[in-house]
Structures are given as structure tokens and as C-alpha cells.
């Protein structure tokens, strides 16, 4: 089975800026894939190249085995993109926007599917409202709906939850998850790392146009982040426990790999007459992975 | 709505029709005002090709409205879509550059012809008009609208801000349409300006269009057809190449 997305040696410069620098990436059908990186890392450029909005200087991109340049018609039918900018056409209602978008993809009578999308995104009551009259969150939902009118097997969401309230985020993720479970490949960029951690089974991290980490979410968390015992103490912690430990604001953070290590640590503290006044267990999180990868302290290709 | 072309055409027509007060009624009123003022001043003083001035003026105003509104339609639609960013809605789907071109230009022709018909309907009562060779009326309205619609596509793609587009419109399209024989016969001009007018393709659109009403004109309608037809062919090739290159749309 060929990959849903295949990106080979793609480079793109804007003036002196290397927006993408020989990027290689494959996303398999059915994956929920996260594309993370700081602003300006090249995430949007990569998505734009995939959508044919940007022409790469070098390299090839394929969607469901269709070249996005040479075979653009087939490639674009396979791809639904939710753009990052909150754009809308002020001349039309929600339903008109979706009908027009369906027509662009050659779909004549799409109202059954449009109704289903509207229902799933909580837009039914807004169907005949002009786009200008909608709140930002509602406009964002319509953007998602517009990307789905042609039932694309590959869905790309470029920061769909930026500035969006909790209710929409939950509605949106529930819907996208259902689509993913139904077999759609989903690629997501977001600055909310807990979202990526919760949703994505595999993650690529981009920095200055290069992929600096690529692995399953599970492996990334295991390799670049650890559990930690967070403590406030009276007395001093034995030095042999301080390997890899950090302190901030009176809280000590002692890393450990397995829960079997916790009791010996506590026993040693007790033995050293060190009294614990407060205690938390920190779990591995993507934010820590992200920060460490971006600082370049670890390189990971997997 | 079956395919990219027909949907884009439908959307472009619906777009101007939804604001018809501004895109149709306003230019009809403007043309009517020109007619009232110029015919008031000049009727009875001026005859051209033996035609009373008001009758001469009406076809000129009609085709001028066709041309200006055809340009306005594609150019304003594109610049608005680019500035607001919703141009992505037509760039993401599988629409070829040929479909893109044809839809924007044809919608411009529709807008031009709708406004032109409105002007004709509003002004036809002011003077007796013949429809001597009506096919020329249709041919030059459609070809003229297509040319200005194509220019509108070029201007809309080239311009990055509304004032750049306004400059294109005010310093190129307006003078060209005004100085091409809408209000006068170029034969009444001094020789130098007469010669210059014969290098202006818009002169041939207006002259050929007027021939359809009166059966007489400054130039032969066949010459006008040749000039206007070649102009459209050159513009088509140029615009298609521009779109194919992705200039300012897909960087």
C-alpha cells in the first residue's frame, strides 16, 4: 500500500530564507499525524506545497500516489486542507459556500453530506446565515466543513484550534477522530502540545525547515521525557539522588524511569532525615520533548 | 453545478448579482446621467454620419458600460479574494488555469452585457435607434467584454492592494474607454489624434458596436473585428501563460 503522503527531498526558499530544507516525510494511510514546530519552522509552507499553493524549488510531493504538480487534479481531490488564516467569502451563506466548494470538486448534489457535516460541526442552525454574521469560532467551523465537502481521504488541518473555545475544540476533535477511525488520514499542526499528544499517533518536529524529530508519540515521550518525582523538602537531599535533578521555586524534580524506583528514593530520603512537605508525580509530556528537541539537546530520527 | 468551470462561473455571477445595486444599477444610472447632460448640451448642434447626437451617443454609452463593467468584475473579484485570503477556495480544488480564465472572463462578459442591456433599456427612449446589423452588436459586446474581462484578470492578479488596482482603472481603463469615440466620431479629431485613435483597440470595439446600430462607422466592421479578435487572441495567450506560471497566486 502506498503512503497517503510522500514528501521527497522538498526544498523551498523565500529570498534568503530556507523555508524547507530537503524535507523527507511519509504519512501512512489511516495515521493521525502531528506536525509540530515553532512559528516560522516551515509547517505552513510544507502544507502549502502539499496543497499546490506553493511550488517547491526541488523535490516531489505525492498525495495518495498522485504527484501534486504533474497530476494535480487527482492529488487535490484526495486532499482537504483547513487553512490557518480565518478566511471566508462575505458574499455567501454557509450553505452556499459549501455548495460552491462542492461544485469546484465536480460534485453536483452534495446536500446530504453537507447536512451531515453541518450537524457534526454544530453548524445546522447557521446554515443559511451569511458568513459575515458569524463569530470567529463559527467561521473556523465552516473552514473545516469546506475542507471536507469532497470527502477527502487525506485531511490536513493547519492550526485549526488557534483562538478557539473549548466547546469547539471538543466538537472538532470528536468529529476528526471519527473521520480518522473511518479511515481518513489526518495531518495536524498545532501549538497546543497536549492536543497533539492526545490525538496523534506519530509526530514530526520541524525546526528552520528541517525535520529534527520523527517518531511515534509513545517513543518520543519515552526517549525524550521521563517521569519525575517533584518534591518540597525540609533538610537536604542526599547527593546521590541529585543526578539529573533540577530545582525551581523550592520544588526539586528527580527523574525516574520506572515506578519501582520510587520507593527506594523515598527510603533514602527518609534515611537522610529529609522530611517531605509536598509531593507530586510528573508524567512525561510532549512539551518537555518539544523544548528539548528544539534546544537541539537531542537528535532523533526513527 | 457540475464542474470547476461552471461552478466558478456561477459563483462569479452570483457574487455581482448579490450586490446588483452597486454593480448593475449604479453604472446604469451613471450612463443615464451622461446621456441627459450631453444630449441636453449637444442635441441639435451636432450630427455625426448624419445621425442625431443623442442617437449616436446611446450605443457609445452602452458599449462603454459593457467594457468598464467587464473590467471591474474580474479585477475587483480577484483583488478582494486576494486581499481577504479567500482566493484559496479556488486554488485548492482541481480547477485548471484554463477553467479559471474562462470562468472569470465569461462572468465579466455577463456583468458587462447585463449592465449594457440596462443602459440600453434606460436610454433607448431618448432617441430613435435602428438595429441595422444586430449581429455586430452581439459580437463586439461579447468580444469587447472578453478583452476587458481578461485585462481585469491580469490587473486583479498583478495588483496587491486596492489602490494599485484603482490606479490601473483610473489611469488606463477610464482614459482609454473615454477617448475612443464614445462621445464623438474620431473623424472629427485633428489628424494626429485621429491617427493615434487608430492604434487604440478600444476604438474598434466601440466603432464596430455602433456599426451594428446604424450600418455606418468610422472603420469597416470587418477591420474592427480583425483588430479586436487579434487583441483577444493575444490577451488570451498572455493571461493563460500568466495563470499557468502561478504568478502571484502560487509562489
Largest interface: A-B, 34 and 29 residues
The figure for the number of domains of chain B is 1
User: Helix segment count of chain B?
Assistant: 10
Average predicted local confidence, pLDDT of chain B: 94
Distance, first to last CA of chain B = 29 Å
SSE layout:
The complex is a heterodimer of chains A (302) and B (251).
Chain A: E1 5-14, E2 17-27, E3 32-36, H1 43-51, E4 58-63, E5 66-67, H2 72-77, E6 79-82, H3 94-104, H4 111-120, H5 136-148, E7 154-158, H6 166-181, E8 185-189, H7 193-199, E9 202-207, E10 210-216, H8 217-224, E11 227-234, E12 246-248, E13 251-256, H9 262-271, E14 275-282, H10 286-294, E15 300-301
Parallel strand pairs in A: 3-8, 3-9, 6-7, 7-8, 10-15
Antiparallel strand pairs in A: 1-2, 1-4, 4-5, 9-10, 11-13, 11-14, 12-13
Helix pairs in contact in A: 8-10
Chain B: H1 4-18, H2 20-42, E1 47-48, E2 51-52, H3 53-84, H4 88-91, H5 97-123, H6 134-158, H7 162-178, H8 191-197, H9 201-214, H10 221-245
Antiparallel strand pairs in B: 1-2
Describe the protein's architecture and organization.
The complex is a heterodimer of chains A (302) and B (251). With 302 residues, chain A is of the alpha/beta class. Chain A is built from ten helices and 15 strands. Chain A has a seven-stranded mixed β-sheet with strand order 6-7-8-3-9-10-15, sandwiched between helices. In chain A, helix 8 (217-224) packs across helix 10. Chain B is mainly alpha-helical and 251 residues long. Chain B has ten helices and two strands. In chain B, strands 1-2 form a two-stranded antiparallel sheet. The longest helix of chain B is centred in the first third of the chain and has 32 residues, at 53-84. Chain A binds chain B through residues 14, 51-55, 72-74, 76-77, 79, 81, 83, 85, 87-92, 96-97, 99-106, 108, 146, 150, and chain B through 1-4, 6-8, 10-11, 14-15, 18-19, 81, 84-86, 88-96, 246, 250-251.
Amino acid at each position: 500500500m502506498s503512503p497517503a503522503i510522500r514528501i521527497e527531498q522538498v526544498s523551498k526558499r523565500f529570498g534568503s530564507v530556507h523555508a524547507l530544507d530537503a524535507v523527507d516525510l511519509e504519512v501512512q494511510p489511516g495515521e493521525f499525524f502531528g506536525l509540530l514546530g515553532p512559528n516560522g519552522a516551515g509547517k505552513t509552507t510544507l502544507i502549502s506545497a502539499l496543497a499546490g499553493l506553493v511550488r517547491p524549488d526541488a523535490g516531489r510531493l505525492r498525495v495518495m500516489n498522485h504527484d501534486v504538480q504533474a497530476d494535480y487534479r487527482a492529488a487535490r481531490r484526495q486532499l482537504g486542507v483547513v487553512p490557518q488564516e480565518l478566511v471566508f467569502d462575505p458574499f455567501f451563506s454557509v450553505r452556499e459556500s459549501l455548495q460552491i466548494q462542492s461544485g469546484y470538486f465536480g460534485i453536483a448534489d452534495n446536500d446530504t453530506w453537507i447536512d451531515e457535516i453541518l450537524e457534526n460541526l454544530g453548524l445546522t442552525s447557521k446554515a443559511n446565515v451569511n458568513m459575515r454574521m458569524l463569530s470567529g469560532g463559527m467561521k473556523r467551523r465552516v473552514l473545516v466543513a469546506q475542507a471536507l465537502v469532497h470527502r477527502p481521504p487525506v485531511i490536513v488541518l493547519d492550526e485549526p484550534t488557534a483562538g478557539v473555545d473549548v466547546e469547539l475544540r471538543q466538537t472538532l476533535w470528536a468529529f476528526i477522530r471519527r473521520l480518522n477511525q473511518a479511515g481518513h488520514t489526518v495531518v495536524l499542526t498545532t501549538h497546543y502540545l497536549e492536543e497533539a499528544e492526545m490525538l496523534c499517533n506519530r509526530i514530526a518536529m520541524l525546526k528552520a525547515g528541517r525535520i529534527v524529530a520523527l517518531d511515534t508519540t509513545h517513543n518520543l515521550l519515552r526517549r525524550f521525557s521521563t517521569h519525575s518525582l517533584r518534591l518540597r523538602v525540609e533538610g537536604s537531599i542526599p547527593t546521590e539522588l541529585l543526578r539529573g535533578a533540577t530545582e525551581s521555586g523550592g520544588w526539586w524534580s528527580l527523574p525516574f524511569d520506572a515506578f519501582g524506583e520510587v520507593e527506594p528514593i523515598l527510603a533514602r530520603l527518609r534515611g537522610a532525615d529529609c522530611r517531605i512537605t509536598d509531593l507530586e508525580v510528573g508524567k512525561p509530556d510532549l512539551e518537555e520533548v518539544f523544548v528539548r528537541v528544539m534546544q537541539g539537546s537531542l537528535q532523533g530520527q526513527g | 453545478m457540475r464542474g470547476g468551470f461552471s461552478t466558478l462561473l456561477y459563483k462569479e455571477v452570483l457574487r455581482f448579482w448579490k450586490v446588483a445595486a452597486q454593480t448593475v444599477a449604479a453604472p446604469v444610472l451613471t450612463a443615464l446621467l451622461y446621456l441627459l447632460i450631453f444630449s441636453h448640451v449637444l442635441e441639435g448642434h451636432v450630427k455625426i454620419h448624419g445621425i442625431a447626437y443623442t442617437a449616436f451617443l446611446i450605443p457609445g454609452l452602452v458599449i462603454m458600460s459593457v467594457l468598464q463593467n467587464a473590467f471591474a468584475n474580474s479585477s475587483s473579484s480577484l483583488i478582494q479574494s486576494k486581499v481577504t485570503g479567500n482566493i484559496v477556495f479556488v486554488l485548492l480544488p482541481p480547477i485548471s488555469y484554463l477553467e479559471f480564465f474562462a470562468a472569470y472572463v465569461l462572468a465579466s462578459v455577463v456583468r458587462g452585457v447585463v449592465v449594457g442591456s440596462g443602459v440600453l433599456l434606460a436610454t433607448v427612449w431618448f432617441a430613435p435607434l435602428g438595429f441595422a446589423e444586430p449581429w455586430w452588436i452581439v459580437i463586439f459586446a461579447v468580444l469587447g467584454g472578453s478583452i476587458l474581462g481578461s485585462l481585469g484578470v491580469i490587473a486583479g492578479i498583478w495588483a496587491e492592494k486596492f489602490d494599485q488596482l484603482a490606479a490601473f482603472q483610473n489611469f488606463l481603463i477610464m482614459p482609454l474607454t473615454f477617448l475612443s469615440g464614445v462621445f464623438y466620431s474620431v473623424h472629427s479629431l485633428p489628424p494626429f489624434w485621429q491617427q493615434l485613435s487608430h492604434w487604440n483597440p478600444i476604438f474598434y470595439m466601440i466603432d464596430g458596436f455602433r456599426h451594428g446600430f446604424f450600418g455606418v462607422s468610422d472603420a469597416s466592421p470587418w477591420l474592427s473585428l480583425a483588430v479586436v479578435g487579434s487583441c483577444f487572441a493575444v490577451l488570451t495567450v498572455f493571461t493563460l501563460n500568466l495563470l499557468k506560471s502561478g504568478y502571484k497566486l502560487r509562489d
